[in-house]
Amino acid sequence: MSSTRRVAITGLGAISAVGVGVPAFWDGLLAGQGGFRRIERFDPSPLLVPIAAEVQGFAPPVLEGGQIELLDRFSQFALVAAGEACDQAQLIVDEAESDRVGVAMGSGFGGCHTQDDRYQRIYGKGEVRVHPFSIPRMMHSAAASYLTMTRGFRGPTLSFTTACAAAAHAIGEAGEIIRAGRADVMLAGGAEAPITFAVMRCWEAMRVLAPPGDDATRACRPFSRDRSGLVLGEGAGILVLESWERATRRGATILAELAGYGATADAGHITQPGLHAPAHAITLALEQGGLRPDQVQYVNAHGTGTRLNDTTETTIIKRAFGAHAPRLAISSTKSVHGHAIGASAALELIATILAIRNGVVPPTANYTEADPECDLDYVPNEPRRMAVDAGLSNSFAFGGLNAALVVKRAD
Predict the structure, then answer these.
(1) How far apart are CA 404 and CA 408, in angstroms?
(2) Second label for 390, Cα 20 to 30 Å away, from 23, 134, 136, 199?
(3) What would the mean pLDDT of 225-241 be, rounded to a whole number?
(4) Is residue 266 part of a domain?
């Protein structure tokens, strides 16, 4: 098998705080309407920050024999998003091909809702028994496993837990598996459902959550001078990746090419991002994609809305792109869908692909005023019509784990 096989993207699926499905996701991004609101799944009154980017109107998938009871919320998100992606790709896998179709999924927290419920029962209520399938619900690999079982895929299947970069690593490594000839098709992305009372308390302790202020819908303001933190989100993003040969042979619509992937580690601080390693990840992705910096038009930034992240990322982009950096259109879609941790990178790559497909760059919503330390073009508040031939998506995670993905227009 060739080690230089091209990777086609043929299907997309998304669930986020701005809607279920890719069309609702894209419409929400372009409208700049943040999915931030007071938490509804539990009483958030004791919390200092009672807002999050919750998914609304989600209907769990229908599974035979009551199997839905064995899936935590994050796995349910994954199954629904994967269904949308496979439907768009018109993906049909016969028995003879199933050994060459795999799954790569990211999740930073795994089955938070199950864990929170079981621990409340054990420690709070003194119960001595819990459901025997509690561990399969909680484990990080549950989403990947259920995707193989519901689809009959028997190829390489992996689960990534690299915090905010988990989905980017899952997608990047899935692409490498296809390039290496170990599989012909991969479902890849991330799913996360971290909005529980305990998890929110832990995030509050880090002092990085944006206070709701007078208008909770505008709480996350990436790159703005008055930014005050991130809004925790949930959701899922799934992509169908195929070898270029398989996709063209079956006449699939190729949405974009997964052209480049870079992964590095800061080897520095557990929460404070570095400079060299993230910039090097971008350089590696561009090199694999055969692109010069000046051939990229759009960057979907990690852009969490915290003081440190946004100034650091601005410097990283300048290092990686040099003189071309001021000419890039840059936006943070976390200003709309929140920080969905292990699902964020997948949602953001989908946004990058849609920018290429539609010739429209989504805005950085809620932008109020320029920060002298964030002095690039962040596409403030309004979508921008422009041709995008190549786009980059950044993911910089706690622990100094970095990933960059490059996608190109399908020619």
Answers:
(1) 14
(2) 23
(3) 98
(4) yes
Query: Does residue 214 register a pLDDT over 90?
Result: no
Same domain, 151 and 73: yes
Q: Are residues 239 and 262 in the same domain?
A: no
**Residue environment code for 372-410, b if the CB has 16+ CB neighbours within 10 A, otherwise e:** eebebbbbbeebbeeebebbbbbbbbbebbbbbbbbbbb
Domain that holds residue 367: 258-408
In the predicted structure, residue 320 carries a pLDDT above the cut 70: yes
Quick one: tokens of 235? Answer: 């959701």
Q: How many CB atoms lie within 10 A of CB 357?
A: 15
Boundary of a domain, candidates 249, 273, 301: 249
Positive or negative, the CA dihedral 177, 180, 181, 182 is negative
Q: Indicate the number of domains in the chain.
A: 2
Residues labelled catalytic = 164, 302, 339
What mean pLDDT is predicted for residues 167-175? 98
- The CA distance from 105 to 13, in Å, is 13
2 lies in some domain? no
* DSSP one-letter string for 38-51: E--SS--TT-SS-E
pLDDT at 18 over 50: yes
Per-residue pLDDT band for 4 (boundaries 50, 70, 90) equals confident
Specify the DSSP class assigned to residue 124.
I
Using DSSP, state whether 158 is helix, strand or coil: strand
Pair (308, 348) in one structural domain: yes
Q: Is the pLDDT of residue 43 over 90?
A: yes
Domain limit, last residue, from 249, 278, 311: 249
Q: Tens of pLDDT along 358-408?
A: 999 999 999 999 999 999 999 999 999 999 999 999 999 999 999 999 999
**Partners of 232 in beta bridges:** 339
The reported pLDDT for the residue numbered 1 is 35
CB 237 within 8 Å of CB 78: no
Question: What's the mean per-residue pLDDT of the chain?
Answer: 96
Domain with 133 in it: what CATH number?
3.40.47.10
